[in-house]
Amino acid sequence: MPLTCRNLSLSYGARRVLAGVDLDVAPGRVLGVAGASGSGKTSLLRCLAGLERGYDGSVAVDSLGERASARGREWHARVGLVGQGPERQLFARTVFDDVAFGPNNLGLPDDEVLGRVTRALGAVGLDLDWSLERSPLECSGGEQRAVAIAGVLALQTPYLLLDEPTAGLDAARVEELVRLVRSLAEKGVGVALVSHDMEVLARASDEVAVLADGQVAYEGVPYQVFRQEGVLRRAGLEAPGLLRVAYALERAGRACGLARVPYDSLAGAILDAVVPGERPTGGARPAGEGA
Ligand SMILES: Nc1ncnc2c1ncn2[C@@H]1O[C@H](COP(=O)(O)OP(=O)(O)OP(=O)(O)O)[C@@H](O)[C@H]1O
């Protein structure tokens, strides 16, 4: 059963931030969440994470039903949240201790903690031996982000909420993050991914929900969402460049097979559409390699 919200509304004082939102975060799926600054993305994740109490409507996960988020511990065992700028919350003496904090807090035996920390560090590309020596304060910003994400991964929650996890990261770490999100989904984790980077959403998401004026203005598979020009305008968003090229080609009668081509293969599909038969479908040949 998914993590769901139904008719979810939330106000801060007189300001209504969410106004009747229905969304599902399903096991093994990645729900991307897009929207302008202040459209309520973080507030939505906080409701799903069981951190907001004053909402109307319902939020449920597995067998924990309406208002169950008030039960705290049970909810947090199911839903992990990596908030914005999570590296600000690193505090332990070593990276290892920081990542181990959550599992230790669950009262798990030492060998289970070690296993979880090892796997979580590996998932974000960090080394176990390094983690035993290094203070989080001595890490680069990108490493700190990875440590903070590992700390939540080590909780092994079946649902994971990520709020702007790629903000400020270099291209290689963005790439790692997209791969991590996809591999978590392949292992059955249900992920909600908030991002201002439409390319990250197009690559990582199974579906994208666009928030505008506190409501879901549109929800669908990425290539459909990003062709909704009116919705994007209303939400202050712009489709990723490659998709805009693909849409333009389709309008000109040169289909790129958007319904079946994953975003990462789109450059090859566009070249196929422009110069038919010149390239293997989905494959981009390294520069300089002969035909
Ligand atoms: N604790 C709070 N008290 C009062 N207002 C709040 C609080 N938290 C958020 N808000 C307001 O609610 C609105 C939505 O904020 P939220 O952080 O959910 O938006 P967002 O879509 O995540 O924005 P961004 O993309 O800039 O992170 C904003 O206008 C914000 O100022």
From TrEMBL:
Sequence intervals crossing the membrane: none
Keywords, sorted A to Z: ATP-binding, Nucleotide-binding, Transport
Pfam families registered for this protein in UniProt: ABC_tran
One Gene Ontology term of the molecular function aspect: ATP binding
Residue stretches making up the ABC transporter domain: 3-238
Signal peptide: none
SMART domains: AAA
Family to which the UniProt record says this protein belongs: Belongs to the ABC transporter superfamily.
Name of the protein: ATP-binding cassette domain-containing protein
Native source organism of the sequence: Olsenella absiana
